[in-house]
Design a protein that fits this description.
The complex is a heterodimer of chains A (114) and B (112).
Chain A: E1 5-7, E2 10-13, E3 19-24, E4 31-37, E5 43-50, E6 53-56, E7 65-68, E8 75-79, E9 88-95, E10 104-105, E11 109-113
Parallel strand pairs in A: 2-11
Antiparallel strand pairs in A: 1-3, 3-8, 4-5, 4-9, 5-6, 7-8, 9-10, 9-11
Chain B: E1 4-5, E2 11-14, E3 19-25, E4 30-38, E5 45-50, E6 54-58, E7 61-66, E8 71-76, E9 85-93, E10 101-102, E11 106-111
Parallel strand pairs in B: 2-11
Antiparallel strand pairs in B: 1-3, 3-8, 4-5, 4-9, 6-7, 7-8, 9-10, 9-11
Classes of the chains: A mainly beta (114), B mainly beta (112).
Chain lengths: 114, 112
């Protein structure tokens, strides 16, 4: 499967726990974007990363949220001390460096905080 | 603040008809325009991209761009029930960080 991969597909956490969401970009893609989508709402940009660099994190909450894209391995979106309001679908998208306009989305991780 | 506006719908069309989905955007510096299809409970799927004024056709889909009017549309010919989904318009500017702004989507229902 050469598409964008995300895991886990579903994640249940209790309030106060940590959530780790992983994203492997499409083969040949070096740009990763994370989005959050709440029910009946649009996609909200969170963070844009390239290998070992955070390019734009203007959409990410200042507290409890962090993201990384290491030299080796998947990109990780980390949410510490989750609250019920963090329950949402989190999508990762990737693009090529020479055609950075077109983003391709992974299947998403549905996070439920109980 | 950059805005992308779409009618939330639902837009209901009979099978075989042409569905017309519209999108307006606020940033005159926008250069890249995309249409994504999102089925309920699934992730967005890129179906069309357009960068210059005019029409771009791909199978049953035609994207139309008018930068002067800050307007982009998607036409779906011979609509099928399987086209029933939410269609997201996304707009980004050239030379920036390539982060598109998404509209909230238009729900399309194609009834047999």
């Amino acid at each position: 499967n050469a598409g964008v991969m995300q895991n886990p597909r579903h994640l249940v956490r209790r309030r106060g726990q940590e959530a780790r969401l992983r994203c492997s970009p499409m083969k040949g893609h070096s740009h990763v974007y994370w989005y959050r989508q709440l029910p009946e709402e649009g996609l909200k940009f969170m963070v844009y990363l390239q290998k070992e660099n955070i390019i734009d994190e203007s959409g990410m909450p200042k507290e409890r949220f962090s993201a990384e894209f290491p030299k080796e391995g998947p990109s990780i979106l980390r949410i510490q001390q989750v609250v019920r309001g963090d329950s949402a679908a989190y999508f990762c998208a990737s693009s090529r460096s020479d055609s950075a306009f077109e983003q391709y989305f992974g299947p998403g991780t549905r996070l439920t905080v109980t | 603040q950059k805005e992308v506006e779409q009618n939330s719908g639902p837009l209901s069309v009979p099978e075989g008809a042409i569905a017309s989905l519209n999108c307006t955007y606020s940033d005159r510096g926008s250069q890249s325009f995309f249409w994504y299809r999102q089925y309920s409970g699934k992730s967005p799927e890129l179906i069309m991209s357009i960068y210059s004024n005019g029409d771009k056709e791909d199978g049953r889909f035609t994207a139309q761009l008018n930068k002067a009017s800050q307007y982009v549309s998607l036409l779906i010919r011979d609509s099928q029930p399987s086209d029933s989904a939410t269609y997201l318009c996304a707009v980004s500017e050239a030379g920036g960080s390539y982060i598109p702004t998404f509209g909230r989507g238009t729900s399309l229902i194609v009834h047999p």
